[in-house]
Inverse folding.
């Protein structure tokens, strides 16, 4: 427990974990995109995450129910954007677009978060963080262009790419909304409320999928997928992400999202035997330098402004 407390109290050290966990999600989602109905999977992942988290925070949630009720709109929008919107749209996009395009489009998140943060919570961007964003974006672009800047111009975009853009916009908005969590509301209670909201909002779409004859495959593999996404991806990564946002701000935390472009090729090399090239090394070095530059000297922020 002392080790967990050590890292929890030092959120800068936690920055690498959400993108590391989400990189496994990208690989897994590629394999299930065609056979798993997106809204049904979204519904089940948040039901699983809620059921696992609820026993640990139920007592505190009951005590803070007046705060939750008083900020129902914030929680509903958080569930609609971060839980329903991002998850379902990402699953839909992976059915129709190339993985390289998904990774490239996801890399715009650190660019969108500072803009949204400035307009919604007046969170300014320091020159150090801005420089880090530029450097890490250059690293992502170098990887996506395979070391050839001209190759970026040859990338083609499809309907699935536009869906991916919508998903990233949803998550950028969610990342900023976390900063608007009222100071008196516990972080895990806020997370649980958002999960429940996401599940409730997913239900009508999942029912529509079932009415159209689209069901989750019945197998042990399906059970593993739902439990893994619900426990590790939905609960673990989101909790760590929210902790970093609450302590470091949405902008600095958003820069760490570029680490997806570091972990994904490394995971593909380890698990699938995909080849690593020199351009991977150059791009990874730039991304790590950008994230380090943004995180250097960061300190805990005061709570975001209350909303009513």
């Amino acid at each position: 427990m002392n080790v967990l407390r050590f890292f929890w109290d030092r959120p800068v050290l936690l920055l690498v974990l959400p993108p590391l966990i989400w990189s496994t999600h990208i690989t897994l989602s590629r394999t299930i995109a065609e056979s798993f109905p997106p809204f049904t999977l979204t519904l089940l992942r948040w039901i699983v995450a809620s059921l696992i988290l609820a026993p640990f925070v139920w007592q505190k949630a009951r005590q803070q129910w007046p705060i939750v009720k008083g900020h129902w709109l914030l929680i509903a929008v958080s569930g609609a954007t971060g839980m329903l919107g991002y998850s379902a749209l990402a699953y839909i996009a992976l059915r129709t677009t190339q993985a390289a395009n998904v990774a490239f489009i996801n890399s715009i998140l650190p660019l969108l978060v500072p803009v949204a943060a400035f307009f919604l919570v007046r969170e300014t961007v320091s020159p150090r963080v801005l420089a880090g964003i530029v450097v890490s974006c250059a690293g992502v672009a170098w990887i996506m262009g395979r070391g050839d800047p001209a190759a970026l111009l040859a990338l083609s975009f499809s309907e699935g790419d536009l869906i991916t853009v919508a998903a990233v916009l949803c998550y950028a908005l969610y990342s900023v909304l976390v900063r608007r969590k009222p100071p008196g509301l516990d972080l895990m209670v806020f997370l649980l409320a958002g999960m429940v909201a996401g599940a409730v909002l997913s239900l009508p779409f999942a029912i529509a999928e079932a009415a159209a004859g689209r069901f989750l495959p019945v197998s042990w593999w399906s059970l593993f997928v739902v439990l893994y996404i619900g426990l590790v991806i939905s609960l673990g990564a989101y909790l760590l992400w929210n902790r970093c946002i609450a302590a470091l701000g949405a902008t600095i935390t958003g820069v760490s999202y570029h680490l997806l472009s570091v972990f994904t090729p490394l995971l593909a090399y380890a698990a699938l035997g995909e080849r690593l090239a020199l351009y991977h090394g150059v791009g990874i070095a730039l991304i790590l330098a950008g994230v380090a530059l943004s995180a250097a000297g960061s300190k805990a922020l005061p709570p975001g402004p209350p909303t009513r």
